[in-house]
Amino acid sequence: MQFNDMYKIMTTQQIIRLGFTHADIRRARSCCVRRLSRGVYSVRHVCTVEGHRRLWASIIEGTHSEFTEHGDLRDQIEELDAAVMARCEVRFQKQSQEARQEETNTANGSDTATRTSPASPPAEVFSHISAALIHGLPIAYPVTHQVEVVRPGVNRRFKSIHVRGVTIPKHHRQRVRGTEVTTLERTLIDVARTYNPDISVSMLDDALHRGLTTREKILATLAQCLETRNTKKVHLALELADARRESPAESIAAVRFFQHGFVGFVPQVEFDAPSLRRKIRVDFCHKAARLIVEIDGLGKLYLGSGVPRDELERERRREQWLRDQGWGVIRVTWKELFTEAKFEEIRRALVSAR
Question: How buried is residue 112: exposed, middle or buried, by Cβ count under 10 Å (0-12/13-18/19+)?
Fold first, then answer.
């Protein structure tokens, strides 16, 4: 998921400037617009009402995306992403208004313009899962419906926002779309402190795989943190992270291997298959046990018939080639990542190999 301008987010004032009335907005909410928070809306899809064209024209042009209904837990992550974007838009509009007011005061010779020192803590910093969405990191599965921010000295949970009262130093935050967010390294650390390893390892794997950061940078940032809570969890997540993994499902599987005490599984191992006239790559390979574990991610689980028939046949031939070479193959679906039965099957295969 990529945060920047994925969906079209608009405030009431922006919609009104397009020529709509409050009554028009109410009618649009039953059609192609959805209210995200007070005074902030998202354009959900292209509709048949020509009068709404100014709302969804950018979707037709490819600048913004429609909201895709997956019918599964991915929809909850999309909703949180939109909520974070909405809060960013509110912050951006507020700061733009303050900047215009300051320019007006300066032009009029007023000395009432307030200036914030760059070194002073900002009023609000996006953090944790919300910051991860802004950085484009994967959320393996929904763990919160609340926008997460930091405000020094405030610890409160509201219906749609979780405020933490820690202080984020200047070098651990950056500006995105007119608002403050924790840096990538600090975000990875905060998530690892707070959430389960399968959530944090998925993000670490992705960031390392794409070359967005390094272990050294993350450890250097961790050493600068005043907070010491759950530091062992951060080190564990870093130990489990592997840049070779290519999906959150693979990252969750690796965490499950650790939790079940399995060792020896190597990710993304490649085989030369002359009879198939190509190389094939498997998710996990245990050479000593001659065992392959393939992970069917969330998309495969829910898309089902959306997978082309020739792709299914190609997968069948690939798996048969591995079995012909003497490899055992165990497939793990997304749902089975969160149950015990499939991992007991893997355990039995490892024991039999010994």
Answer: exposed
